[in-house]
Amino acid sequence: MEYDVLVRNGLLIDPFQGIYEKYDVAFSEGKVAAVEKSISGSAKHVIDAEGKIVTPGVIDLHVHVYYGVASRLGIDPDSTCLMKGATTVLDAGTAGHVVFPGFRKFVIERARTKIYALVNIGALGLIGFGYPNVEKAMKNMDFIDIEETVKCIEQNRDIIKGIKWHRTYGQETLVLAKWAAEKAGCFLMCENSALHYLPVEMVLRYMRPGDILTHCFHGGPASTVLDEDGRVRPEVEKAARRGIIFDIGHGMASFSFEVAEKAISQGLLPTTISTDLHYFNVNGPVYDIGTTMSKFLFLGLSLEQVVERVTSKPAEILGILPERGTLRPGAVGDCVVWDLREGRFEFEDSLGEKRIGEKLLKPLAVISGGELIHKST
Ligand SMILES: [Zn+2]
Q1: 230 and 99 share a domain?
Q2: What's the pTM?
Q3: Same domain, yes or no: 30 and 141
Q4: Residue 223: which pLDDT band, with cuts at 50, 70 and 90?
Q5: Domain interval for residue 36
């Protein structure tokens, strides 16, 4: 049999299937055709992944890809996400309901990257991000319309998975966002506000099991998941136990090594690892999903724990497992071959703090929809 792509001899890490072993993976007609110890047959493209890591296509649960409209936030999804291994992404509320149709037609439907989205509770979303006067004007409560937001979700159920609440809108709008999410029957993603007047324990109070707290290891300057003595706050522990999802959303100001180190040492692990990739951090300190995953290898998570947090976990949250997030036969043919490099690599958090890690994940090949779309030479 001739396949479209055949990946041979790689160490397959597929947490959904419980596989951490050398396997061959074959793709045809856009899907995973076979996963076996040894696949005979030929293919248009054969990749020898001996000594390399093979994972399902990565799902980045927090990016901003409304390119051109959010002109100081949105980046091109294919070059910054897909080519770096994130075959599926969730845009975290760049568009509100007023500008969502354009996002769908001109970005989501044209990109090779599979894009899901959260609709922002603010009508215009984050399109004014990076323009202080516009941002200020858009904090106005008049920019929130629950009926229209719910209507937008109902008309785009195939793409919109939830609602995004942004801390700059303030506490009153958190109530409205929660109400809209309940009305639309979807989850709510809240920012860990890290603000004095809106501490994380206050935000968590409005969140239901299945809702996502992004920027979970924000470094402050005010409230973080840690108390003044560096202990994980009891309200945070309670929230994790009752099923709130703790998402990284690294970003340009929202990830602290110190908070991550203290939280992880006390057993608070993130549920999902995401980048919050956008215009201001794609050239550092975030760069891409592989660099963000590597930071968590440095922080002591195992390769399997890291891969789970960018494949099966986000797929489960988005309700797209086992179609995506796994290389189970029949799933969408999205796959990444990684080089796990060893050496001394400098990593930087959002506060300019640096750490030296010994492992770095670099994507060598990306397969999307069963086609080989990127291969390093
Ligand atoms: Zn964001």
Answers
A1: yes
A2: 0.97
A3: no
A4: confident
A5: 2-55+329-342+352-375
Is there a single domain that holds both residue 233 and residue 308?
Answer: yes
Alpha carbon of 63 to ligand 1 centroid (Å): 6
Residues 321-350 as b or e (16 or more Cβ within 10 Å = b)? bbebbbbbeebbbbbbbbbbeeeebebbbb
Task: Tell me, in angstroms, the distance from the centre of ligand 1 to residue 115's CA.
Answer: 15
Is 182 a domain residue?
Answer: yes
CA of 6 from ligand 1 middle (Å) equals: 36
Claim to verify: residue 22 and residue 164 sit in the same structural domain: no
d(CA 143, CA 132): 17
**320: its two tokens:** 């797209």
DSSP 226: B
Expressed in angstroms and rounded, the spacing between residue 246 Cα and the centre of ligand 1 is 14
What is the whole-number distance in angstroms between the Cα of residue 44 and the centre of ligand 1?
39
Give a yes or no: residue 245 inside a domain: yes
Count the domains in the chain. Answer: 2
Per-residue pLDDT band at 182 (split at 50, 70, 90): very high
CATH number reported for the structural domain that contains residue 184 in this entry: 3.20.20.140
Mean pLDDT, range 108-114, rounded to an integer: 98
Task: Note the pLDDT tens digit of each residue in 187-218.
Answer: 999 999 777 778 899 999 999 999 999 999 99
| Average pLDDT value for residue range 242-271 | 97
